[in-house]
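Each lists chain and fold; for instance:
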Amino acid sequence: MLGYLKYLVFLWIISISILVACSKNNPNVNPEVYSAVYPDTLYRDAGPFYVEVSVKDPQGLGDIVSVEYRIDYQGGILIADWASLSDAGSGGDSVGGDGRYATLVPGFTSDDSTGEYEIEFRATDRDNNRSNTIKGSFWLSSNGLPVLSDPNIPDTIYTDSQDKYLFVISAVDPDGADQIDSVWFRIFRPDSSSNGFDYYMFDDGVNGGDSIAGDLRYSSEISASEFDEQLGNFRLEFYAEDNIGAVSEPLTEYVHLMPSDNAPPFFLDLTAPDTLSASSTDTAYIFLTVDDPQGLEDIDSVWFLSYRPDSTTSGTRYYLNDDGIEADTIAGDGIYSIGITSFGASPLGKWRFEFRARDIHGALSDSLDKFIYIIE
C-alpha cells in the first residue's frame, strides 16, 4: 500500500512539472488581432462601409468576449468610440464562428471633414486580457455627384421603322472621369408607366453605337419596339452612377412615337343649335362626333373658335370634352360636347363657329364650320 501511494505522489509531481513546463513554453494567454480589413478611401454620403479583423486566442475563440474598433480624426480627435464587431454571421459578418469579426460602419455625411482618419482594432477575453492593437488609416474625400448634359436624342420615332435609333449624352464626374461606373436611361410611356428596363450606355468606342472611346459621350442604340403599347410623348430619364454608388440627378428628355403614315382626326357628325338668344341665360349644348384612323385614343383635343358677323375673333379656343361629365354621357366614345350660352353676346347676327381636332402627334383635322344666328 505504501508503495502504491509513493507511486501516486510520483505521478502527481510529474504532472505538475509538465504543466509548469507547458506554462513556461506558452506564457502568452492574451488574444491576438491580425489581418484588419477596411477601405483605403471613403466618400461622404456614400453609405455604410465594411470593416473586419481576424482574431485568435490560446484558449480558443470561445474565450473571446469582445472585439472592437474605433475611429479618430487627424490629431486624435475622437469620431467614434470603441464599438463592437461580430462573428455571429449577421450585422455585416458573413460566416459565424470563423474568427473573422466584422460590421458595417455608418457612413460619413456631408457635415464630416475630409482628410485622414485613423482606425484601430482590439480584442478582450474572459479574464480581461487585452490583445495587441492594430492601427491603420483611410482617407475621407468629398464625393461630387456625376453630372449629365448635352443630350442628343431623336425627336420622333416611327413605330414601323426597322432602324435603330442612337441616344447620346455627356457624363462627367467632379472626382475624375475614372469615377463613373455606369450611365443608363429609363423609358416611361405617355401614361407614366414603364417597361422596367434600364438601357445602359457606353463610352468604349464599340458598343451601343459609341464612336470614340473615353470622350465622356455615352451612347446607346435601341429600336422602336422598345417604345411599346402606346403612342405619343415618351419620357426618358437619364442617370449616371459613380464607383461608390452615388447617382446623379436625372436628366429628362422626351421622344415622340408615331406611325410614319399617321393620318389626322376627322369629323363624323355635328349637333348644334341654329339660333341663340343674347337675352337668354340658358345653356345650349354642342355635340361633335370625332374619329381617328389610329383610334380614338389618338385624339388629343377638339375645340372651336367663334367669329363675329364682321369675321373678327377673340382667338380664344373653347375645348370640347369626352370625359363623361355633364352633357357628355359616355367617356371615350368619340362624342365631344360643350355647353355654351349667348347671354349678352354682341353683336347680333350670323356667327361662324370653326371646329378643329388635333391628334397626339400634332396632325390637324380639316375645319368644320357651323353658322349660328345670335338674336335678341
